[in-house]
Design brief:
Elements: E1 3-11, H1 16-30, E2 36-40, E3 61-66, H2 70-85, E4 91-96, E5 99-104, H3 109-122
Antiparallel strand pairs: 1-3, 1-4, 2-3, 4-5
Length: 129
């Protein structure tokens, strides 16, 4: 069965500790969804020699959803939206293939429309109305 591959990146500016904490929290939430695989993406660089293991790149997640799982895709994006809404300043970049959006905490109607259009594109327009 084919799968959709997603990349999720918590955006926290220059605050790498906050980014790591939020990424790990989001990872825990993703593991609760049936039909979704999740893990940590390879870090872009390795720890600086002599450091205490802090990565010099951004920590990111991957998630996979069965390509025929439009409902699972919707559940995944809903979880990300709800997780983001817990704190107004949370931002998550969500990419699937060449398409991506940024979901922020407490999205307005315009962002909700953009999220819906993103889901339509990812699902190939096959989402139930």
């Amino acid at each position: 069965m084919d799968q959709q591959e997603w990349r999720l990146r918590v955006l926290a500016g220059d605050d790498t500790l906050r980014q790591e904490r939020l990424t790990r929290e989001l990872h825990g939430e993703l593991l609760k969804i049936d039909g979704v695989g999740a893990g940590y993406a390879e870090p872009p660089t390795s720890p600086i020699p002599g450091s205490k293991g802090v990565l010099t790149g951004e920590l990111a997640l991957w998630a996979t959803v069965a390509a025929s799982g439009a409902q699972t895709t919707k559940v995944l994006v809903t979880l990300i939206r709800e997780w983001s809404a817990r704190e107004r300043h949370r931002k998550i970049e969500v990419s699937c293939g060449d398409d991506s959006i940024t979901i922020t905490g407490r999205p307005d109607q315009a962002q909700e429309r953009i999220i819906g259009e993103f889901l339509d594109r990812i699902d190939g327009g096959n989402r139930p109305e």
